[in-house]
């Protein structure tokens, strides 16, 4: 029914999208692994970052790829502040509260954006938005290939950060044993905030990689956040390699479901995987927690 | 009344309990002692249905209850307390105990009356309206006991109800436990406070490294060389005997 | 003792029932009807999430099932509105039981339970948006045919009383549960599952009972929404908005308390209207205010509005407190 090239192209597209999904899931899984919280506002922060890319491009003429560095720093600072001064103090250390607070944050952010930008959908017009590479019978969008490569590089960098730097060691120490880390003199609230900041910073990068081929409106983060949850659950909560593999897998699943089931049912495969994994294998498919 | 037959419990590669057996006759207070990490609490959890043993059986009043879940065993008449007290923090003392009382009394008025009666019996009569979270350690231990009693058990499993209490608090609660037995409740207790074990128990089992190493009256068990070694290390019994001989 | 707690319920119901005699403004009556529908959904959430401590992010699954089953039965099969509502509520309860059975048996708690309920609601939303018999993306439009037997009323007051009647049932059911063995066991499960099991509480069956009743109440809200607006689509019926509304109201009013949902729903929507008046008709401003209120409640008033009131009263009348508690 479907010719091989069409299926191959769908899979390839799935992989390209999946890498960016993985990047989005990376921040979520890192925050989960260290703070043991589910950040419901993750999607809303992504929407913020995408608007920031759009603003920078529209009003400052900044190319999305050049915006990566400044936006990463800005979003790190925002994430740090939000965890240190809002989520941390307001939750009184209770996990259920954190879930509710991040839900509250996501509602506030999403609707503040709606109030500011209305519900219009906006996209960037760069001169390379429609450039493609031809590989045999397949056409690969240049910008999406950059997105893929960028996501893989960032995943690698994050892994290095955790494995090889002092900050990374402090983060891993807090993730393993909060009390012990505090006893040896690590400032746990600072490490929490740094982790949350890194989570937001990866979203800024994801936004920069997404915007050349995607659009933004105040609700766009919602579409990503459930996908990201699925990837995190699938890859094992807190696992960075799990997030990468899970992201690629989900990207392909979504793309193939869209091909076989049609646009409107395309996302259902993701949710069904999500439910099945939670019900039957809540530790994730790809190995243990970090 | 209760028979534990060759219970083995492995967690991954670790054997917490290896082929332990014990028997509790009706109307007695039986102690379960042993060094830290011996597997006492694990054995309790298996008897109460909180863990499925890797092997072995639990027999209660002649029938095999090994496959039954915890709440079914509670209905049959097995109640347990927790070593680390587990109050319902958001509820007051009356409501805490009433949760236990509801097991045999469906109506709220009856369950509350029962809860109040049990509270008085363990010395919490004056604290009925206090939040459970505001109780002292001794108060929480009593609450733990009261909730279990409110289920009107035939067999009561007490996991270190005396730990963390000061000597006068222990003196206060020992007669309460004896009174519970005198009213017909059989008791199996894990305890570290040896004074209480000597005082209360008709019979004592000693668990060390997951194995039952001795059994008998408290007095017999205390002089059993295996027990002394389990607590004080290998060769300790010989050293003690040698010391006694040299003093003589 | 068994009558405990019914007096404030009667008071609240009486005030709302008499409202149409004092106020004739359709804007106000519309507001009250809408808030009562939200209250019903929130009462459902409160039983499971507030009393039972199992926070769901997917009560839209029950609201939407109520609305869709009722709409399909009426539109496609011409079945009487009251009968359709009864069947729809049963269907909502069944969906609740199924979701509960799957997720509680798998041992999901806390964040995991919240996420899985959200995912179930999303699956239903996507299906309703795609399937033919649900009207697809166009949704389902009911025929306007006013009359008692069709559960459609021209008078806003009549619909207010209908909604209030259901809310009253919700309040009485909640209060009966609060005074019962089931209620005590449900609270015990919230506070400490292990300890509850040790006291003979069948945790799984208590949770299942709670989610079934909870889903039924929220399904009633879906049915009423349908009868009032005569139109639903997948994003209304199974949308995240109603899951959030159902959760917010009890959080704000007083989590786990019988009057929490109704107090919270009126407080929130009152604030929402106020913020619209203050900021003009900027889209999203009322919802942004809800989010802020949620954060503030969690941070500063975990007992919600009722918790705050109680604190204030006890602080000013320390003697009255002990008198009341011993009464």
UniProtKB/TrEMBL annotation, chain A:
GO molecular function: transmembrane transporter activity
Location(s), subcellular: Cell membrane
Name of the featured protein: Amino acid/amide ABC transporter membrane protein 1 (HAAT family)
Membrane topology recorded in Swiss-Prot or TrEMBL: Multi-pass membrane protein
Any one cellular-component term (Gene Ontology): plasma membrane
One Pfam family matching this protein: BPD_transp_2
Bilayer-spanning residue ranges: 12-34, 40-60, 67-86, 98-117, 145-164, 184-211, 223-253, 259-280
Taxonomic superkingdom: Bacteria
Predominant location: membrane
Keyword line: Amino-acid transport, Cell membrane, Membrane, Transmembrane, Transmembrane helix, Transport
Keyword Zinc-finger: no
InterPro entries per record: ABC_transp_permease, BCAA_transport_permease
Any single biological process term in GO: amino acid transport
Automatic annotation (TrEMBL), chain B:
Protein name per Swiss-Prot or TrEMBL: Amino acid/amide ABC transporter ATP-binding protein 1 (HAAT family)
PROSITE patterns, per the entry: ABC_TRANSPORTER_2 (PS50893)
Gene Ontology MF annotations: ATP binding; ATP hydrolysis activity; L-isoleucine transmembrane transporter activity; L-phenylalanine transmembrane transporter activity; L-valine transmembrane transporter activity
Domain of life: Bacteria
Keywords: ATP-binding, Nucleotide-binding, Transport
Cross-referenced Gene3D superfamilies: P-loop containing nucleotide triphosphate hydrolases (3.40.50.300)
GO cellular component term, pick one: plasma membrane
GO BP of this protein: D-alanine transmembrane transport; L-alanine transport; L-isoleucine import across plasma membrane; L-valine import across plasma membrane
Record lineage: Bacteria, Pseudomonadati, Pseudomonadota, Alphaproteobacteria, Hyphomicrobiales
PANTHER family linked: AMINO ACID ABC TRANSPORTER ATP-BINDING PROTEIN, CONSERVED COMPONENT OF ABC TRANSPORTER FOR NATURAL AMINO ACIDS-RELATED
InterPro entries: AAA+_ATPase, ABC_AA/LPS_Transport, ABC_transporter-like_ATP-bd, BCA_ABC_TP_C, P-loop_NTPase
Domain ABC transporter: 2-234
TM stretches of this protein: none
From TrEMBL, chain C:
UniProt-listed CDD domains: TM_PBP1_LivM_like (cd06581)
Family annotation (Pfam families): BPD_transp_2
Keyword Plastid: no
Superkingdom as given in the UniProt entry: Bacteria
Molecular function terms from GO: branched-chain amino acid transmembrane transporter activity
Recorded topology in the membrane: Multi-pass membrane protein
Transmembrane segments: 6-23, 57-75, 82-104, 158-178, 210-231, 238-267, 287-309
Source organism per UniProt: Chelatococcus asaccharovorans
UniProt KW keywords: Cell membrane, Membrane, Transmembrane, Transmembrane helix
Protein name: Amino acid/amide ABC transporter membrane protein 2 (HAAT family)
Compartments it resides in: Cell membrane
Main localization, broad class: membrane
PANTHER family recorded: HIGH-AFFINITY BRANCHED-CHAIN AMINO ACID TRANSPORT PROTEIN BRAE, HIGH-AFFINITY BRANCHED-CHAIN AMINO ACID TRANSPORT SYSTEM PERMEASE
GO cellular component terms attached to this protein's record: plasma membrane
